[in-house]
């Protein structure tokens, strides 16, 4: 399987205000837990074509992405991989090609194998798969 584009993530200063804005554009938000449990400071809305828009507070991002910097991009992209092995292999391929690895692959508390690399302009690109 080839990794497929899946998520547009936006870092927001105020989750309620951001949800109100996007609701006015027709989006409906759920709790956003990947394993059926809510995550504080995180919500998701289904988009056409199977994509998702996620909103995360700055505090939530700092908790789960300790390397996140305020000056970094406010929008992130995420690619779903077939399994944990593909996350590891794709991360290795990209970092060996010279792209910056922000977060090495790890098993996240929300039930995913997760990693982050930067594109050539420094934007975060997450790689993930459900944990085994």
How is the CATH topology named?
2,3-Dihydroxybiphenyl 1,2-Dioxygenase, domain 1
Average pLDDT, rounded to a whole number, is: 83
The proportion of residues in beta strands is: 35-45%
- Summed up, the helix count is 3
CATH class: Alpha Beta
Biggest sheet record: 8 strands, mixed
Strand order of the largest sheet: 2-3-4-1-5-8-7-6
How many domains?
1
User: Distance between termini?
Assistant: 17 Å
The name of the CATH architecture is Roll
User: Which structural class fits the helix and strand makeup?
Assistant: alpha+beta
How many β-strand stretches? 8
Q: What is the string of helix and strand elements?
A: EHEEEHEHEEE
| Low-pLDDT segments | none
Radius of gyration, in angstroms, nearest whole number: 14 Å
Name the CATH superfamily classification: 2,3-Dihydroxybiphenyl 1,2-Dioxygenase, domain 1
Give the helix level as a range of percent: 10-25%
Shape: globular
Describe this entry's structure for a reader:
- There is one protein chain.
- The protein is α+β, with helices and mostly antiparallel strands and 132 residues long.
- It has one domain (4-130): 2,3-Dihydroxybiphenyl 1,2-Dioxygenase, domain 1 (Roll).
- It has helices at residues 15-24, 58-64, 84-96; strands at residues 4-12, 29-30, 42-46, 52-57, 75-80, 101-107, 112-118, 124-130.
- A hairpin with a 5-residue loop joins strand 3 (42-46) and strand 4.
- The longest helix has 13 residues, at 84-96.
Summed up, what is this model?
The protein is of the alpha+beta class and 132 residues long. It has 3 helices and 8 strands, in the order E-H-E-E-E-H-E-H-E-E-E.
């Amino acid at each position: 399987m080839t990794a497929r584009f899946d998520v547009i993530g936006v870092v927001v200063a105020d989750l309620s205000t951001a949800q109100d804005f996007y609701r006015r554009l027709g989006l409906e938000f759920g709790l956003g837990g990947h394993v059926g449990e809510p995550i504080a400071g995180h919500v998701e809305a289904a988009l056409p074509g199977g994509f998702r828009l996620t909103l995360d507070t700055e505090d939530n991002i700092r908790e789960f992405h300790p390397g996140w910097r305020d000056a970094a991009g406010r929008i992130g992209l995420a690619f779903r991989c077939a399994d944990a092995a593909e996350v590891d292999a794709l991360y290795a391929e990209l970092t060996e090609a010279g792209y910056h690895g922000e977060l090495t692959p790890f098993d996240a508390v929300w039930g995913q194998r997760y990693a982050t690399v930067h594109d050539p302009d420094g934007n975060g690109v997450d790689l993930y798969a459900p944990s085994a």
